[in-house]
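Following up on my earlier thread - several people asked me to post the actual chain instead of describing it. Fair enough. Here it is, all 491 residues.
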Amino acid sequence: MPIDLPSVSTAQVLVCIALTVLVGVLTWLKVRGAGTRRGGSDKEVFLAGGGLTWPFVAGSITLTNLSTDQLVGMNGNQMLLLAWWEIAGFFGLMILAFVFVPVYYRNNCTTVTELLERRYGGRSIRTLISGLFLFGNVVIYLPAALYSGSLFMRSLFGMDLPLLFFAALLAAVSAAYTIFGGLRAVAVMDTFSGIGVLGLALVIVFLALAAVGFDIVTGVPPERLTMIGGDDSPIPWHTLLTGMLFIQVFYWSTNQNITQKAMAAPTVREAQKGVLAAAAIRILIIPPIVVIPGVVAYKLFGDVGDAAYGRLVAEVLPGWLAGAFAAMVAAAVITTFSAVLNSTVALYSVDFHERLSGKVADHWRLGALVSVVVTVVAVALVPVFQDADSIINLLQQLNGLFSMPILSAFIVGLLFRHVAAPAAICGVSWGFGIYAAYTFVWQPQGLITLHYIHFMVVVLASSVVAALVCNRLLGNRARWIGFADIRGPAA
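Reply from S.P.:
Thanks for posting it. Predicted structure:
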């Protein structure tokens, strides 16, 4: 997806570097008095010692989610319909705030997988789910973030340098936050960067609308302006009534990359305030910045796919802001990469290393080593994504392999008692298998034409049933505990 942008001057490059350094300095000044490296416990390294106030919880959640794969990928679809992903995310955050946050705090969790071990009374389900999260982070999310960000940065600066050069540079800065500051530094950096990212993204929306006289209707096909998707659209309207909500529940409430930030506040109330603030940003700010530029780009340039955002920026953004825009792009990648990297290190350290090698004396030291290894692997995998037609669509497809099977384990564990861990593993394995068959065999061959968002409900429901049936075959009788007792400990 080549992006045609004008060459950038040395001064603009220096502005980009200066703003990136400024965020780093402000982050250091903020966290140095908070005992960033005091102790080496998992709570201190991965949950900021439980010291994040609500603005930093909100900022970290927002910037962990927002990166170039959204700014480029969602605008690349060049239609308003894609805003439903962000609108639905508002409801996902509501569920996180009022259902899952109290559960995680009551169970004193560092990782979401700890909750599964306590509910099922077995370590095996925790190991499986943690392994799936680790695989997804290392093989999919981290290299994808680097790829989309590196491609955009290279095009922006007009430099004839290998993509891996930019990927390595972005990864090194991102890893430094995780290695030297843990989640506290990552969250603070997210929040400071978020002010610039969201602010400049809104400026781009305004300038884009001004470029077309605030008229995005004339000359744009109705299907690109409607919020009611047809059967052949990326989001048919009826999928909003089926799988969309469950996708959001998985992403915002059971995904370690997001929930880790909500678990880092001193109290449930403080965490909920942060999540609600993130929800407000999600519904008020994010939708316009990820769809309006794409539609304006269609009016100006036609159907240019993933090049839409870059070409529009080149058209409407004053030259003196190019350096600031580059810093915004870099910040979006760095915040996402560092946050996912920190979550990856947490999952490995707490769920695997402690089990295999015993209690970890200093999570700072272990985290640094794991961060380096994961970062090198992620950079090495960046070329794998170069053949993707649409990075956002590829991520959605790959995400389906994990989302509903993992969510089924949480649903069964929270709503039923006396379910054995092997039964939950059976349900997860079933869901992973049928979604893989649907994606790579049944749908390509036309054997099943059901939209993938609809099929996710099939995967979720059948995974829950498979877990309960397997549990009965193992000689256990599950007992429904209902929503009223969802916060209680497993019997």
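The mean pLDDT is 84. That should answer part of your original question.
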